[in-house]
From TrEMBL:
<dbReference type="InterPro" id="IPR011697">
    <property type="entry name" value="Peptidase_C26"/>
</dbReference>
<protein>
    <submittedName>
        <fullName>Type 1 glutamine amidotransferase</fullName>
    </submittedName>
</protein>
<keyword id="KW-0315">Glutamine amidotransferase</keyword>
<dbReference type="InterPro" id="IPR029062">
    <property type="entry name" value="Class_I_gatase-like"/>
</dbReference>
<dbReference type="InterPro" id="IPR044668">
    <property type="entry name" value="PuuD-like"/>
</dbReference>
<dbReference type="Pfam" id="PF07722">
    <property type="entry name" value="Peptidase_C26"/>
</dbReference>
Length: 244
């Protein structure tokens, strides 16, 4: 079977000379590469979503800045962070194209929030002010994993992870089940019938040569799970629907 090509999204930033640049933490690509996938960056910058979905086997939506609240039908709260409207539009188009193509999508942190908003869910724009919870700066916390979810075969019912976010899921999008929680915070979701799943925490910081977090399990198996999805492995959707 051929090596799956996986599009890995990246952010935009302005260099000191005023030119636009792409940025991406290397461990995202290393996680895909180490699991047998071939990571690609979306460098076109144009209307390439449909072509990307046709050529690639999967889409990884990576971490980054807050999403424009209008995309989940809210006004911008003063505590909402800096936005990247160009990235919002690009990832929205890519997600739409990959979903229509029936190809696997996996989201990490911001990626989970993009997925939830795209499918009609909402977000808390600031966890500390809304729920009194602080999940930024690498907070270490337990994960309560749902039996039958995509995470359960990898880590069992309980695990430990990190958080680098100040926003999270409020209303879960229709068609999705919660796969893991940390207290009140939704830490993972998956679609009941489509190959779309996401985690709120940062598995790329818990594996590889530049692992940030000492706590918790090696998350290489999670990247391997996604690469297998991109190679055509089917989830047991009946088990998911029955157990969640």
């Amino acid at each position: 079977m051929k090596q799956p090509m996986i599009l890995v999204t990246a952010g935009y930033q302005i260099a000191k000379n005023g030119t636009r640049q792409r940025y991406l933490y290397q461990n995202y690509a290393d996680g895909i590469r180490g699991a047998g996938g071939f990571p690609l960056l979306p460098l076109d910058g144009g209307d390439f979503a449909a072509e990307s979905a046709r050529m690639c086997d999967g889409l990884l939506l990576t971490g980054g800045p807050d999403i424009e609240p209008v995309r989940y039908h809210q006004e911008t709260d003063p505590l909402c962070g800096p936005l990247d409207l160009e990235r919002d539009a690009e990832e929205w188009a890519l997600l739409d194209a990959f979903v229509k193509a029936g190809k696997p999508v996996f989201g990490i942190c911001r990626g989970l929030q993009v997925i939830n908003a795209f499918f009609g869910g909402t977000l808390y724009q600031d966890l500390l002010s809304r729920l009194g919870v602080q999940h930024g700066g690498g907070v270490i916390h337990p994960l309560a994993i749902e039996e039958g979810s995509f995470l359960f075969p990898l880590y069992g019912r309980e695990s430990v992870s990190n958080s680098y976010h100040h926003q999270s899921v409020d209303r879960v999008a229709e068609g999705f089940a919660v796969a893991a929680r940390s207290g009140e915070i939704v830490e993972a979701i998956e679609h009941r019938s489509m190959p779309v799943a996401a985690v709120q925490y940062h598995p790329e910081r818990m594996t590889g040569r530049e692992r940030f977090a000492e706590h918790g399990p090696d998350t290489a198996p999670l990247f391997a799970w996604f690469v297998r999805q991109c190679m055509g492995e089917k989830r047991d959707e009946g088990k998911i629907a029955q157990s969640l």
